[in-house]
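Why do we care about 3D structure at all? Because function follows from shape, and shape follows, mostly, from sequence. That is the central idea of this module. The next example makes it concrete: a single protein chain, its amino acid sequence, and then its structure expressed as tokens.
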Amino acid sequence: MSRRWTKRLVRDAEFVVAVDVELVEAEGAWTPYLSLEDAYKLDEVRDALRAGDIRRAPQVADRIYRLTAVQG
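And the structure:
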């Protein structure tokens, strides 16, 4: 079993949050997969964004971005 770190992007409305998660690769058909803690972390960020609570999202995430239209 090996592990590697990556970023997952969670988007809701005009915001995107980058969250560090650890992917677990094991012998089997369902790899790579997230740990339960990282799955809860992504859910917490998603719930905060949906509730409009921008101050809570950075507690779990690395960065938060606001999307703006370049044209039209």
